[in-house]
Structures are given as structure tokens and as C-alpha cells.
User: Fold this.
Amino acid sequence: MKLKAIVLAMTTALAALALTGCGDDGDTGAAGPAGQDGSAGENGNDGRDYTAVNQWFVEGQATVSQASQRSISDPAGKAKNVILFVGDGMGISTLTAARIYQGQQQGHSGEENRLSFETFPYSGLVKTYSANQQTPDSAPTMTAIVTGVKTKDGIIGVDDQAIRGNCASGQNQAVLSALQLAEIAGMSTGVVSTARLTHATPAATYAHAVERNWEADSNMPQAAIDAGCTDIAAQLIDFPYGDGIEVALGGGRTYFMANTETDPENGSNGRRNDGRDLTAEWTSKYSDSAYVWNREQFLAVDTRNVKHLLGLFENSHMQYEADRQDDVAGEPSLAEMTSRALDMLKQNDKGYFLMVEAGRIDHAHHAGNAARALQDTVALSEAVRVAMEKADDDTLILVTADHSHVFTIAGYPVRGNPILGLVRGVDDNGSASTTYSTDSNGMPYTTLGYANGPGFGYGNDPINTDSYRPDLNLYDVTDVNYRQEATVPLDSETHAGEDVAVYAKGPGAQLVTGSVEQNMLFHVMNYASDLVNRAEANQP
Assistant:
């Protein structure tokens, strides 16, 4: 069967489906009700017309085609390589605040600063709604970015005909990702994340799942396993395309370990009930492979001879950038992981596809903690800068976000006011005021805040119990642990539904402009690097 037909029909020859979850970071919301599982069924032709087109896929393809005809654009296939950067939860307000934060850390007022990717020649706005939600989670948004197809919340790498949590409903509904197409085409591929590698965003590049929380088999109901569904971690190791993923770096170590194994860093047990040691399977599957779990081992890897590298640097998510230096075992930065991934991938004359995620921007926002979110955004900017230096001119680089957060920048602070600080306005002469701006009750407030989240009333302020708002004069609001105030009390701050930005440079970047559907980004990458045609041409 032709690959184009497989892509357009939203099916693959995988025998199992699975998904990644957010667990304790609040990204997913409540899991959907489990549907009734059926038998696994047979993959391949299920009687449908495989030339039929999926609405999301064909509309995204048409948008790119029209844009390429009406503008001065590079021809299809000019990009040998593609690098996709995703700041998870990196909305436009986060970009603005991080830009100012970085500038102020460098001794400037901050507003005039630009993050590395803000220098890219092309940019646009991306609509992030999913097939069934106005405000989405990371599973359908990343699926849209890497497959060209919008799907339902909680679902990874499977089209919107599937039902969340229903294993049988996902059979023959899997969709190929840009990374999978790249492997079929003979290119080298890599996945880098500061979150668990089994988390929604990185998982969407290589896995297919009707429930994002199925990160290990212990997270799955037995009925789903019996029906033929496979957990996310196993899908990374069992990846069937090309010669396998060359680089996989991130967190989530215990999801790859049997429950009889002990984590080398903290002594916790693995999460797998099936007894599989997936890290050992990785090194036995590839003769030229290595597995590392700390920074010292990572830096010692000979990238000229190691062709398949698995790095799992935490038992769950990796450390925030603000806390990385305190990690006992040590772990590489996002920029370091990006750099070494490119060192390995660039050795393939057929090109490469690399996805890099700053996953913990999202987690910090869920916790109402702006400082860590901004530091991780700056860390992403540094990783992009490294890629800009290492990538050749035949490389398309995209930088975007999967969704936004209800993160606000408010008040009328004077230029150069500390972005994490209390608002200090200007006096009648236009100079910085000598006093802080106050609310209608005479209380100061910060520039940054959240529309909802755990910072409501700052935890029922123990200092001023009679006040609706705490007296922020009594707190160090610039401390990395400070949790910004929230308007609506929630245990975990939520995503936001507004557009996110996309920045592009390299062959095909001209197609990134205006306001577009999120699934169009796959079609930009496909047009620029001709992924589908290259994959078809490489078929035996």
C-alpha cells in the first residue's frame, strides 16, 4: 500500500496503540471514561477507501499549496533537515515576560531584548483548538503539529474517530508523524525533552495511543492490554520504522524499568509490571548503541561511534532549569542535549529530523510559578541558539508552542521594572515612581499573575488573615519559589485557548505567516523537506 494513501487515510501498519500522560503536573485534566474494548483486529485494509481524505489533513495541505503559489517560496523538498522546537505552554505572554527577564538578567531594562528565535525572518499565529475542545491539552496539539491531523484531547497519534480510553476505537486510526516518515525515508531522527520521554509532546512523534496516561503498562487497564494496545515507553523501544530512532533524551527512567528494578539515583522501583527492562532492550537491539542516565555518562559518549543513544536523566521529569545544578547525579541542559543530538544526526547524508521540547515551561505555569517558567523559556532560547549555530543552510527550523496558559502581564510598570517584581509606575514627570502601585484597598501587586491557579489568596495568607489579598510588601515576590497570585482558585492552573506564535527560518520558512491552523505546521515541514515523497521513494 502506498505511503500517501496510508497517510491520507490516517492509518499505519502498527499492531498496537498507546499514550502518554501528565500525571502530577495537571496538564491533562480528568481522564476520559474508558470505552468498551474489543479484539485487536487485523491491521491493514479494513474495507475503507484509502484514497479518502481526512478533513484536517487535506485542508492543511491545501493551505500550504496555496501559500506556495502566491508567494516567493522555496521549491518543495529544498530542506534536507528539519528541527522542530516546542515550548510546552509557551504562550505569547510567556515569550514577552521571558524576553524581558533575559534582558534584565543581562543588565538591561529588558523590553528591548529579543530571544534567539525572535530574530527569525518569518512568524505567524497558530490556532490551537483540538477536535473536541476550545482549550486543548498537549496530546492533540502536538499530534496536529507532527501529523497534520487535529484529534481529540487526551489522544496521541490517532485521528479524531477514536474515543479516549477505548483501545478498540483506535485500531486502524493511527496517523504517521513527521519523525516516522523521516525514518522511513532513511533520515536520522531524534527526540529531546526536559519532560518524560513518554509525556504527551515527545510521545506524539513516535507513538499511537487513545489514552495519553498509558505511559507504562502499569498505567493501563488489563482490558486494553488484552485488546492489543501497547504502552508508550514500549513503543519507543519497539519503534518499527527505518533503522530506529537515533537519539532519545529526556526524563521518565522508571517507565522503562521493571518493578523489580531499583532506580540508580534514588532507589525507587520501576513502573513496569511486564518485567521488561527497556533500557537493556535498547542496547541489545542496536549494536552501535548506548544508554546513559547522568550528565557525566552523557558527556563521555563518543558521538562518532554511537549511532543510537538513549538518555533518561530522571525517574520522572527532568529538573527545572532553576534547579538543575542541585541535582545529585547531574543532568545535561536542554542546550547540551540539543548540541549532542545534532552532532550525531548530522552524520547522515540523507538528512535528519529533530524535535526538541522545553516541557517544563508548562509544569511551572500549572504550579503558578512564573520564575521557573521564564527560566525554562530562556533555556529553550539558548537551545535554539545552539541549533542556529550548528545547522546548515539546508535546514528548516520551526519554533512554536503546543498551547498557551492563563498567564498575564498587567498594571502600568515603568520601563525596566523587574518583571518578577511589584508594579512601580511613573510619576507626573514620567519618571519612576518612588512608591508601588496599589489596588483599590491600598495593596501592592505584581506585574505577573494568573487568571486561575493555586496562587489564589496566596494560600489563605497566614500573615494577614482578614485581607482578601495578602500584603505583598511582606513577601519576596522575586524569589524563584514565589507563586504568583491567581484570580480563580484551582489546585492547578489551566491552559489558555488563545493563539500561540510560530517562528521559522530556512528553506520553506516563507510559508509560515498569518494566522493558521495548528495542523498546517506538519504540512510546512512536509513541503519543505518532501517527507512523504522521500519516504515513498525509499520503500523496497
Observations:
- Residues 234 and 278 are 7 Å apart (CA to CA).
